[in-house]
Amino acid sequence: MATVAKGYSYVYDAKTNGFYAISLKDNYEKADSWPVSGVKITDEEHKILMDGQSAGKVISVDENGKPVLTDAVIDYVALATVERDRRMSVVTAMISQRVDAQDDGDITDDELTELSELREYRAKLRRLDLTSAPDIAWPEVPEYVA
Fold it and tell me: Which InterPro entries match (predicted)?
């Protein structure tokens, strides 16, 4: 059984962003999974890091290889892209239904108007500047769009 250095219960490995219980070192070594390098941390440091992570913080590495809590970086442009793509999928499916009706020769006047409005809405979505996220002026959604 591994001896635990006084006051330290874990090794933090920056490469895996993982914590390894020193008391289980023999088991990790048998499984060839004990980190090659790492820094020792106390139970108290481990608890602070875990509590912070549970509260939405991110465990990062400082210049000395020690784990530290940082604020999560939110990629607003990526989130806006996902939302734009979701809206595009919905409207594209609706356009497809109306185009099918048009191709079949049984499109109603209301559907023809909607087809034009949906295409206009989709074009506005496609041309949307997402670099200003999260402050995006989304185009008005036609009332019949789910």
Answer: Phage_T4_Gp38_tail_assem
The gap from C-alpha 3 to its chain's centroid, in whole angstroms, comes to: 39
Share of residues in the chain with pLDDT > 90 (%): 89
User: pLDDT tens digits, residue range 25-69?
Assistant: 999 999 999 998 899 999 999 999 999 999 999 999 999 899 999
CA distance 75 to 114: 34
Show contacts of 1-6: CB within 8 Å, 24+ apart.
Answer: 1/26, 2/26, 5/40
Rounded Cα–Cα distance for residues 83 and 55 (Å): 25
Question: Of 100, 88, 85, 91, nearest to 146 (Cα)?
Answer: 91
Find tokens 């079949």 and name the residue.
104
**Token output for 36:** 């090659």
Q: With DSSP H G I counted as helix, E B as strand and the rest as coil, what are the percentages for the chain, rounded to 5?
A: 50, 15, 40
Residue 111, φ and ψ in degrees, nearest 5:
-65, -35
**Does the pTM of the predicted model rise above 0.70?**
no
- Parse the chain into domains and list their residue ranges: 10-70, 76-132
- From the list 80, 31, 32, 39, the residue with the least C-alpha distance to 22 is 39
Token pair recorded at residue 34: 């004990």
